[in-house]
Amino acid sequence: MIDRLAALADIVPPRPVAPPPAVSPWQGGTTWWLAVVVLLAVLALVVFAAGRWARQALRRRRARARLLRTRARLRAGPADAPVAPLLAAVFEDLRRAGLPEPGAGDAARGPHQRLLYAREVGAAALCDYLDQRLAP
Fold it and tell me: Which long-range contacts (CB under 8 A, 24 or more apart) does 93-101 make?
């Protein structure tokens, strides 16, 4: 009987091939490349943000140093020296230093308005204004 079954062995189809085991998506090469690209993009964004923050901090520090030098020069010079040419640069440096124009309730509002609208501004008035604005 075994010989008869052996004779029919070529007629019986072979067993189907078993499917491969389930593969995790992290085992494929494409997913790893995608993860690396996303990680590099996040890293580049962090580096960009840190660089921007450092540049802003440096600009603020430089503007504050320019304001301190200007105040020292005004104190050393004559009290009635005209400072109208300096006002635009001083206001710009105040903005860069992170000290925006004073609001309605701010104590520096009056001196700010006097500096903006006076016909001739003396060095003493600008010195007083810078003292108020640069006070820690």
Answer: 93/63, 93/64, 93/66, 93/67, 94/63, 94/67, 94/133, 96/59, 96/60, 96/62, 96/63, 97/60, 97/63, 97/64, 97/67, 98/60, 99/133, 99/134
